Amino acid sequence: MKTSVDLLQLLDAVGDAVIVADAQEHIVLWNAAATRIFGYSEGEALGQTLDMIVPERQRHRHSEGYGHSMETGTTRYGTSVLKVPAKHKDGRTLSIAFTVGMLFDENHRANGVAAIIRR
């Protein structure tokens, strides 16, 4: 039996947030669960940087690590589940767990990340 799945419908059906950001940390994909967890609509999130959900005290470290991953095409986290603070639209701090995967262009240069997030 052959099954055809609409990827966007799948992304909105899952309970975990799926966020994809490009090499400059701009959000290019934001599913319904990301809206539920962080409070921002897809329209508010797309095109914004990840700073919108990274608490201010973690932003410098986050940006340094993100930049290093884009330069090297590697992440030290691999498939490890990371537990970190995040920021909700209303300003409150959230405790999230996520995995992150590197994304690459046709020349195998890092061009973004995909994160699967839950609370």
Explain this structure to me?
This protein has 119 residues and is of the alpha+beta class. Helices cover 29% and strands 31% of the residues. It is built from four helices and five strands, in the order αββαααβββ. The chain has helices spanning 7-13, 32-38, 42-45, 56-72, and strands at 17-22, 27-30, 82-87, 93-104, 110-118. A five-stranded antiparallel beta sheet has the order 2-1-5-4-3. The longest helix has 17 residues, at 56-72. It is globular and about 35 Å long.
Which terms summarize this structure?
119 residues; alpha+beta; five-stranded antiparallel sheet; 4 helices; 5 strands; globular
The strand line-up of the biggest sheet is 2-1-5-4-3
Q: Strand content of the residues, in percent?
A: 25-35%
Question: Span from first to last CA?
Answer: 35 Å
Give, in order, the helices and strands.
HEEHHHEEE
How much helix is in the residues? Answer: 25-40%
The low-confidence runs, each spanning 5 or more residues with pLDDT under 50, are none
Radius of gyration: 14 Å
Q: Main beta sheet: strand number and arrangement?
A: 5 strands, antiparallel
Decide which structural class fits the backbone: alpha+beta
Counting DSSP E segments of at least 2 residues, the number of strands comes to 5
- Distinct helical segment count: 4
Shape call: globular
Mean pLDDT: 93
